[in-house]
């Protein structure tokens, strides 16, 4: 059975990653794309060899699609995801699922009621580097994990800035853009859930309208692990990384908080340093393979709707903490 996809949003991320990932599946086909601009829909469809370009959600949902990928601005996700679910379409939605965790749970409910698959596009948990870290921890290679650090402050290129740094009403800001990813990656690698977060944010000159372009967060997890993370749009030369420290060893991952299958992971114990081997499969290709399998009733998406609720609840708590100056409990309400 061919799974026919419709793109809700003529986006850069779909063009750079998702279209190719869908087409890399033996049973995947992109048949339509929607933009609020008819001209943009038509030009995007032509440029990316997609049969149909439409300018309304109804038109896309009635264009013969089985699944949709939503990559519009964040404030549109709720309405579009619920409409797709009610039309019987499987939903892969960009993070964050919505502007609030309460709205994210509405999407989860709509998809469950409709009997369709819901996935959150948390690409980082599909990286071979993070999977190698998770496996090393689960195998006890660093002993009991006690602390972690995430370095995920980058420079947001001009062509991606736009609403992310100017429109609070669209769900802009670095916390809803990057902290959600760090929440999910920490949960995945540690196999643990966060219970509390303390955050401070900054507006260092790139963002406006009250939005933040940098954040530092302190996390507490159920197991007792503590973590720190740095998210930003404004650091051109920082590099990215992920460390996990345990009672018997440490993991040092470099250049891994990215959309591409790159970077290194080093395990350090009393025996010395060991570079871990991991596959270099495309993150989105792996994600789409799991999603297609879930549609066929085999397993679940790499990042489920519940995972999306968890990450959004974490980001929501971070914003509340930054505003109040206090630690805030993370409660996904699941």
What does this structure look like?
This protein has 334 residues and is an alpha/beta fold. It has 2 domains: 3-123, 3-Layer(aba) Sandwich (Rossmann fold); 124-284 and 312-329, 2-Layer Sandwich (Dihydrodipicolinate Reductase, domain 2). It is 36% helix and 25% strand. The protein contains 10 helices and 15 strands. A 9-stranded mixed β-sheet has the order 14-13-12-11-7-10-9-8-15. It has a 6-stranded parallel β-sheet with strand order 3-2-1-4-5-6, with helices on both faces. Helix 5 runs antiparallel to helix 10. The two termini are 33 Å apart. The model has no long low-confidence stretch (mean pLDDT 97).
The CATH architecture classification of the largest domain is 2-Layer Sandwich
Q: CATH H-level name of the largest domain... which superfamily?
A: Dihydrodipicolinate Reductase, domain 2
Overall tally of domains: 2
> How much is the average pLDDT?
97
Strand content: 15-25%
Count of helical stretches: 10
Shape: globular
Produce a short descriptive summary.
By secondary structure, this protein is an alpha/beta fold. The protein has helices at 12-23, 38-47, 57-61, 77-86, 101-114, 128-138, 158-166, 174-190, 283-295, 305-324, and strands at residues 3-8, 28-34, 52-54, 67-70, 90-93, 118-120, 145-153, 194-202, 214-221, 226-232, 241-246, 250-254, 264-269, 272-275, 328-329.
